[in-house]
Amino acid sequence: MSFSEKFKYKESSVTMSDATGDEVNAYRSVSSLAIAALVFGLLSGVCVVYREFFMFALPILAVICGWLAAKQIRRNPEVYTGRNLITAGYLSAIFFTVAAGATYIHDQNRIPSDYQPIEFAQLQPTDKDAGSIVPQDSKILSDRKVFVRGYMSPGKGSVVKSFTLNSAQPDGCGHCAVDTKDTHHVFVKMTPGRTVNFTTRQLGVGGRFTVKDPPETNPDGSLRIYELEADFVR
Known about the structure:
Number of strands: 10
CATH architecture of the largest domain: Beta Barrel
Oligomer: single chain
Radius of gyration: 33 Å
Helix content: 25-40%
């Protein structure tokens, strides 16, 4: 082999060796945190179905893992990759969280077709009820399944089987009885086996409505004109 041929061979060997080294140096591993962000983001889809409070830890974990992965890649860009996985994890977590919230709001506002929505204004006396304790128009609702919104009071414990639903509630006094007319209250008792958590927020109650004529007298001296045997609360 001539000198020129030997030089070309050596030069070729060096070039091939350099190329192989560049390929080795160019390889970057996918960040395990980025993979975790994507997995938690996709798992956030269960929030749409179950909507349990602890389930929302999944999108939170997706965001945390994504943030840590981005930090890891930023510090060691020559070692780690996975930015696309982080983005996909973020988008999945956001999408499923918004979808779960929208589904919850829809379910809360949805009224079953066999329940008649009513308002407290419909239960109040009019001019033609002069001298009558029980409004005439409210009597047509007796023994019907209705849905009405109001406020709970008074609160006796965090879980109750019966309560009074009021048309209004004093500010900052969720456990206080409301000093209004007797027609502004509906006594609610849950059907057997059902309970409800006390809340100061407005809630909707559905069930069998009863008009007491003549009214019953409560222990505090007020009149119980309306009762509702509730089978669901929202």
